[in-house]
Amino acid sequence: MPRAELADETLAAVVAAAGLDAPDTREGWEWRLQCALPWPVFDGYRRRRDECYAAAKDVNDVARVAAANDEFFAFVNAHPDLCRLFAAGRLGYYDALLPKVAARLRRAPPARILDLGSFAGVSTLYLGAAFPDSQVVGVEQHPGAVAVAEEASARCGLGNVSFACADYTEFDAGAFDAVVSLQALPAYLIPWLPSERPEEYARGSHLEAALGAPAAAVLAVARAVAAVRRLTTAGGRAVLHERVVGLPRALLFHHLLARAGLAVTDLCLAGWHSVSQRDVVQSFPLIVASAADGPVPFDEAAMTALYTQAGGPNLTGLPETCGVTFSGPPAHAAFAALPAPRDELCLRVGVKDGRRMHAYFGIAGGLWAYVYRCDTCDERKLSVGHLGIVPAMFQPGLDELARLQASGQLTDCEPPLDQFRYHVGERFNFSAS
Fold first, then answer.
1. Fewer CB atoms inside 10 Å of the end CB: C or N, the chain?
2. Range of the domain at 420
3. Does some domain include residue 67?
4. Using CA atoms, how far apart are residues 83 and 75, in angstroms rounded to an integer?
5. What's the CA gap between 15 and 37, in Å, rounded?
6. Does residue 94 fall inside a structural domain?
7. Do 294 and 250 share a structural domain?
């Protein structure tokens, strides 16, 4: 069966010594699972994995998400062969992330490194090999995973690496010069927060409000972040790569770091693909933070810029008879970059689910007709076309607003929708039906 080639030489050496190998495809990895595992173990793994995927879609039921994740990893770590195979399936992730982590730690090599959630030990052993003069400790709460990691460590023969079986939120082995967490924090519990205004990404006062409820799921994340700070010596570094889906959650996570005394000094998107996960490249922020003695200032701008990088609209060669549509952050950037002067009308509405939505109909630079719709859920869509197709550009947007109003989805309109439709037709010289 084909094996994937690992790009990082240090990781390749560790993996070979530990007796692991990287599957080439997801299908090959799944086949290896079926061949190597007794049917009850493979079936139990598959059912728990499917429940994790199903729970992840129900973003409002954080208790279900947490329970599904806990059950899944408890099951994986209770079966040594499955634990090893799962570690092999994650080698693509380690190959993409660990060199980036090591590069940031080499700027000031740490004497003691703590690897949170060390699982089967691959990341801990890599750090031990990459930093032979450092003492590296992996902490993992599942005894089965620790046993697999210690077996791999014995194969590798790295004298500067050790493992501890403990919950890292309660682990007490003094402070470390560097703390590394690769998807070890319960970031999947971070709630989605609305923006304060439809045109902006800023969460502002909503960030602090999210911490107000005593039973809020985000408090579990805050507790984990506090443990990272406690385990990092003052002036030391925390290097974090967490599965924080979407800008709203990333901003709240960044806010929690600042509250805990972790000042972000380096921030970039780091992508990867591993056969144990989806067949797509995933990308989340890689964060380096310096440990301070107390809360540090928080600025949303850096994280927002990271998630919303996009250029202005490229309208060169656009046919005169059709338009072009942008969605998400590119729509936001394109709307901001439309040429002046701009003549536009804006409809401000509330939506039944609590969102605020704005819809813009206008002419930019005397050449381009556009419709831009944005809301506090960060749903953004911009359609742009030549001035000569104003009816074809504007009518669908007006019709969609009418459908939303007829279905009871719009709670209020300013100005009233009928009045807005009339003004659009009058201002831009077409008959809005």
1. C
2. 323-427
3. yes
4. 9
5. 21
6. yes
7. yes
Amino acid found at 341: P
* Same-domain pairing of 37 and 170: yes
* Shared domain check, 270 and 385: no
Q: Supply 427's token pair.
A: 């201002």
Q: Would the pLDDT of 280 be above 80?
A: no
Helix axis angle for 80-89 and 91-105, nearest 10°, is: 70
* Tens-place pLDDT, residues 372-395: 999 999 999 999 998 888 888 899
Per-residue model confidence as pLDDT tens digits over 105-153: 999 999 999 999 999 999 999 999 999 999 999 999 999 999 999 999 9
Q: Among 306, 339, 356, identify where a domain stops.
A: 306
Residue 106 identity (one-letter amino acid): R
Q: Is residue 1 part of a domain?
A: no
Say how many domains are in the chain: 2
406 contact partners, CB below 8 Å, separation of at least 6:
none
Q: Which two tokens stand for residue 52?
A: 């994790």
Overall size of the chain counted in residues: 433
Write out the two tokens for 321.
């008879």
pLDDT, residue 219, reads 87
* Residue 282 bridge partners (DSSP): 272
Q: Of 273, 306, 339, which residue sits at a domain end?
A: 306
Average pLDDT of span 51-56: 85
User: Do 386 and 250 fall within a single domain?
Assistant: no
Distance CA 346, CA 362 (A): 9
